[in-house]
Amino acid sequence: MEYFTLNDGNKIPATGFGTFQITDPEQAEQSVIDAIDSGYRLIDTAQYYKNEEAVGRGLKKSGVKREDLFVTSKVWFTDSGYDKAKKMVETSLKKLGLDYLDMYLIHQPYGDTFGSWRALEEMQKEGKIKSIGVSNFYDDQITNLAMFNDVKPVIDQIEINPWEQQKTSVDYLKSFGVRPEAWAPFAEGKHDIFNNETLKSIGEKYGKSVGQVILRWEYQRGIVTLAKSTHKNRMEENIDIFDFELSDDDMKQIANLDKGESQFFNHRDPVTIQNFVK
C-alpha cells in the first residue's frame, strides 16, 4: 500500500474502501472483513450511512491491529454545531467500538460548520481524533473555515471521476495544503464508464481493467480514492493499482473525457440544500 502525508503529518493510505449504500448489517460487516483481507487499510463510513456498528464489527473481526488501520467517519449536518457534533464523535466511537478515529469529517457544508469544527478541534486535542477534515466543501468554503480557525482541514472529500475531474479544485486544494479525496471515482457507472473506449484502450496496454485505470489516474494526480464493492474479487482488483504507471499521453487522454459537471447534484443549488434538509 502507498501512502500520502497529510498537512498534520499523519499518513493516509492512497486508496481506501468506501461503505456508502452498504446498509445490510451482515453485508456491511462481511464487506469490511473482505476489504481488509484484500489489503485495504483505509475504511470510510459515516453517521449518515447507518452502518457504523456493522463496520465496527468487521474491523474487530478482521484480525488486523488497530494501529495498522485508518478509520474515517463523518458528522451529518442535522447534528452540526459544537454540542451536537461533539456528541456525535462519541457516538461514532461507541458504534465503531474504537478508542479513537484516524479521521473525522464534516460531511456537508451546511448548518453550523464553525461550531462543528470547534468540536472536532477539541476532540483532536483530547486524542479521540487524529486528523480532521471536511467533505463536499467548495474552495471558498474550505478557505473560510481554515482562515478563521486554529486547525486547517487535512482532507476535502469531493466527487472526482473522469466525467467530473475537478481540475481547478484539485489544484487549489493541493496548493492550499489540503489533500483531495475522491468519492464516486467510478461515477457509479454513469455514461457507461466501464465500457468507455478510451479507458478500455488504456487498460489493455497494461493488462488492467477500466476501474484500475481510473484509480491509478486519481493516484497519479495525488488524490486519495474510495472505491466500494461487496464482491471480494472486485475489491482485490481495485486495490491492485501500484504495479503500473500511466504515461503522460494516457493522462492527457483521460483529461479530455472531462464533462465538467457533477454526475449527482450541485451542492450549491438552493433546491439541493432544501432537499437535503427535508
Characterize the structure shown.
This is Oxidoreductase, aldo/keto reductase family. The chain has a single domain (3-277), classed as NADP-dependent oxidoreductase domain (TIM Barrel, Alpha-Beta Barrel). Helices cover 41% and strands 17% of the residues. The protein has helices at residues 25-37, 52-61, 82-96, 113-125, 139-147, 167-176, 197-206, 210-220, 232-239, 248-255, 270-277; strands at 3-5, 11-13, 15-18, 42-44, 70-75, 101-106, 129-135, 155-159, 179-183, 224-227. The strands form two sheets. An eight-stranded parallel beta barrel has the order 3-4-5-6-7-8-9-10, surrounded by six helices. A two-stranded antiparallel sheet has the order 1-2. Strand 4, helix 2 and strand 5 form a beta-alpha-beta unit.
Helix run count: 11
* Morphology call: globular
How many separate structural domains?
A: 1
What value does the average pLDDT take?
A: 97
GO molecular function: oxidoreductase activity, acting on the CH-OH group of donors, NAD or NADP as acceptor
Pfam family, one: Aldo_ket_red
InterPro entries: AKR (IPR020471), Aldo/ket_reductase_CS (IPR018170), NAD(P)_OxRdtase_dom_sf (IPR036812), NADP_OxRdtase_dom (IPR023210)
Binding site for substrate: 107
